[in-house]
Amino acid sequence: MYKNLFSKRELIIFIVISIGFLMMPTMFMRDISSQQNFYQQPFFIRITLQSILLLIFFLFNYFILSSKLYFQKKYIIYFLTLIGSFFIIYKIPELVVKSERIQQLTANTTPLVRKAPPAYFLWAPRILMYLCMVLISLFLRHNKRYQEIKEEKQLSEIAYLRAQINPHFLFNTLNNIYALTLQKSDYASDAVMKLSKMMRFVVSESSKDNVPLLQDLDYIKNYIELQKLRFVNKNSVDFIIDGDPKQINISPLLLINFIENAFKYGVLDDVTHPIKVYITIDNKFLELYVENEIENIQFDNVESSEVGLINTYKRLEYLYTNRYDLKIHKDKNQYIVNLKLNLND
């Protein structure tokens, strides 16, 4: 969806592999190449069909089986599919085109020693070629997946450092802390500690693949508490965490973007229309519900917010494929986010 189907480098690799597969019949026929019209011989036609089926399965394994079965850890189904595909690739051509290869190999032998080649003589090269094809396909797919995740992680880390503790939030928080110090409020030191913990988490933890869910929730708690410093009505934010987050991991800063947007564009400091943030944890299933009324004004940084949401959606696609359900409802007055996430490793 977000990337080209394959890169130029992959295209070159596929072309080279395709040429190799399509040239195999000619290489197998080298010992009878002196015969006329050998391209019309049953053995050549059968090997050609096998090579075409191998090439088709190579692409099928690369684009579909690896992502739908192998990377989804459905190893038994994947293994059975490989076995079934192997027999389809090598048996169908034999049924369609009767081979005369064995007769050619044994035609000049005496009746006393004439016999069919042993089974391993015929099947060992086929199995070896098939395994090489599967391993090369998986290796290329592993490499592509690694590069995609690496690139996405780099983009996400840059987005975090620029957006999660963004200058607007940082300046507002520092101004609020400064006001608290002028009032000699006891909340000033607590606010400094919360901000310090948030910055430490972003700098030291956001680059990790997974962090304890407790740490990520602490970041969210501190963010909301610091936002409430500028509110007169502390009850204008309804924040609830229900469930036990212990011994559960999550990709860092995955939830905060939805919450941050509620404070950017929602109605603030209004107890009649509070910002609602509900996080429910049931075993290793997490649900995030965010609801806010929308201010009837225009914002200059709506585009940056949309980029943040797109990056979050990409991360969900890469890290929690088939393990999340994201629904966003927006109308003129209200914005609702409902994310359900399966955090089973």
Notes on the protein architecture:
There is one protein chain. This protein is 59% helix and 12% strand. Helix 2 runs parallel beside helix 5. It has two domains: 141 residues, no CATH class; 178 residues, 2-Layer Sandwich (Heat Shock Protein 90), CATH 3.30.565. The strands form two sheets. It has a five-stranded mixed sheet with strand order 2-4-5-7-6, covered by helices on one side. The protein has a two-stranded antiparallel ribbon with strand order 1-3. The chain has 345 residues and is α+β, with helices and mostly antiparallel strands. The radius of gyration is 31 Å and the shape is elongated. The protein contains ten helices and seven strands.
The DSSP helix count reads 10
What fold name stands as the CATH topology of the largest domain?
A: Heat Shock Protein 90
Q: In this structure, how is the largest beta sheet organized?
A: 5 strands, mixed
Query: What is the total tally of β strands?
Result: 7
Number of domains: 2
Output the helix-strand order: HHHHHHHEHEEHEEHEE
Helicity range: 55-70%
Mean residue pLDDT? 79
Secondary-structure-derived class = alpha+beta
Computed over alpha carbons, the radius of gyration is: 31 Å
- The main sheet orders its strands as 2-4-5-7-6
The CATH architecture of the largest domain can be given as: 2-Layer Sandwich
Level-1 CATH class name of the largest domain = Alpha Beta
Based on Cα principal axes, name the global outline: elongated
Spell out the CATH superfamily of the largest domain.
Answer: Histidine kinase-like ATPase, C-terminal domain
CA distance, first residue to last residue: 25 Å
Task: Note poorly predicted spans.
Answer: 101-114
Strand content: 5-15%
